[in-house]
Amino acid sequence: xxxxRITRRSLAGIGALTAAGALAACGxxxxxxxxxxxxxxxxxxxxxxxxxxxxxxxxxxEALPELLDGFREENPEVTVDVxxxxxxxxxxxxxxxxxxxTAPDVAQIGSTWMSExxxxxxxxxxxxxxxIEDFFPGAVESVTVDGTVYxxxxxxxxxxxFYRTDIAEAAGITEPPTDWEGLFAMAxxxxxxxxxxxxxxxxxGGQGSHQSVLPFVWSAGGAVVSEDGTEFTFASAQNxxxxxxxxxxxxxxxxxxxxxxxxxxxxxxxxxxxxxxSGPWMMAAVEGLGGEGFAEKYGVFVMPQKEISASYLGGANxxxxxxxxxxxxxxxxxxxxxRPEVQVRWFEIVAALPSHxxxxxxxxxxxxxxxxxxxxQLQTAFAVPTIATWEEVVARFDAQIEQVCxxxxxxxxxxxxxxxxxxxxxxxx
Amino acid sequence: MLDRRRPVLTYIVLTVxxxxxxxxxxxxxxxxxxxxxxxxRVPPTWLPEEPTGDNFRxxxxxxxGLYFRNSTVVxxxxxxxxxxxxSMFGYALAHLDFPLKRLLFVLVLVCLMIPGLVTFxxxxxxxxxxxxxxxIPALILPFLVQPFSVFLMRQFFLxxxxxxxxxxxxxxxxxxxxxxxxxxxxxxxxxxxxxxxxFLGSWNNFLWPLVVSSDESTYTLPVALALISTGQNQTDxxxxxxxxxxxxxxxxxxxxxxxxxxxxxxxxxxxx
Lengths: 429, 272
Description:
The structure holds two protein chains of two kinds. By secondary structure, chain A is an alpha/beta fold. Chain A is built from 18 helices and twelve strands. In chain A, α9 (about 210-220) crosses α10 (about 235-250), α11 (about 265-270) packs across α12 and α17 (about 390-405) runs antiparallel to α18. Chain A is globular. Chain B is mainly α. Chain B has one domain: Orthogonal Bundle (MetI-like fold), CATH 1.10.3720.10. The two termini of chain B are about 20 Å apart. The model of chain B has no long low-confidence stretch (mean pLDDT about 85). Chain A: This is ABC transporter substrate-binding protein. Chain A: Belongs to the bacterial solute-binding protein 1 family. Chain A: GO terms for molecular function: maltose binding.
């Protein structure tokens, strides 16, 4: 299964290139050179009217009409047409639509697509009336391209350490660790318990493994892209420290360097690998597998710190496309979606974590201790840099991580290679 | 081909290959009856421990009939279009003499060699400019005559004797009647092959319908299945396998129905 998905992704990459090529070739007259940032226009007063087309992915797309009932009540004159788009190849659909000028008014936008869409001059800058500072800082970063805000963070997710509380207790661990050494010691202690095969599940390279490594990079005070987003900074002492730490889990035999795909949940429930690092969706997955009462057998804690505790911030944004014929109403819809109370409702419907910090004060979200840990982590969770070539660059990074974890490549060497490959690719700006 | 003295060996070889081919299908069908938890279990189980119809039930909570109808309409139209137009074009390239015939054939070959992704965006822009975005015809028209079909039919007709054409002309049969009443009735095996191949291609097409359709009312089965089974961070494998099982069934039926012709078709295109 995984291999087909990767093939589709690489196809998506080709599609994206084709799209960019087509755009460049067409040279739409309104493309104003390399700096598309026009000043944000304010939103007109009064209720939303007319027709709006909205694209949203997967389960979100299917559940969205239900969430929009309130919007329709407030704006009886408006008709909203929601198209659910499959996550698979959604990127191709967007780039094609942007090329052909058939993009929707409002859409859910994957956080890694932002800079690319902005460079295609496809997104409207966010009007100043939005209280952007109310959202998690990491999430705001993901909608900021070259200093301009495009769209609004819709929902967020971040990664925590999941662990089996019962096994930890048997291993004599009462308090979750707070620093790197503590996490390593805990994983080792968990591994030595009767059921334990490995201490912690970590991705040993391959597609997406940078998402597991970057939190440690940030934790060590490192970064892979300079503040202004113009240069790569893979080769640094902090990054090396982080990657060496990550590598030690494999060289010391605490994490499996060749895990089978999709076994994390199963191994967690059986106790074979009683720890892993992942996002909120894993809660439903392990509870579904573990059955009745399993929710009491595991806990989550925030990422351990070196300099700081840092984690990966994912999720999705919502934005308005350039050329929307109904942009005032479109922004009103975005405003509705990002209200705290609507975000709480959204959390109830699809369990998406609110991007608006105010929504977390609501009992529905705050009552669960595990969600509180996510809340804490979100304060220090970082989004990936918004540079147009990001996907391409991290694919190289993923490959190097694999060599570090599986073949014992020197972390410094891996980072130097990634750095030179990244420089060849460029930041796309 | 088969060695009569060693039927046992033949059967062993055949069985091994049959198993290789059939195992993924069996896994898919059995998997569609398992829960997500059981599907992800290591070591994997073959037979579902607690068979459940839950995946299918959740599948039919959606307008699956609509997706099924869309897929069927599109696949049938594309198949018929290819059978009809490509056989005419292929016949003309094989047996008729007209100016620029060679050039036309070379163009068909060129079209065959250009990767589909290169023309993907321009084709989409074209469809949008024609006002066909998000319609069923947009899923059909670009595939109505495919270069591969033309090529296949030309090669097939080349294998039929030209004397038939000459005899028809001498007997005063019209050109159109020669095609429809002499050559076409002989094209059964080629039709079966081409029919299955184009039907399969259209039935499984994912990227084009995904990009062209902006409304669930025009979604085809693969697009709808991707939508409901694959999330941002997780895949619902049970639902995916149940959907895949339902998508494969019509293909199996079509194939069983045409199997005899299909094999003849492969044989004739290989020998003649």
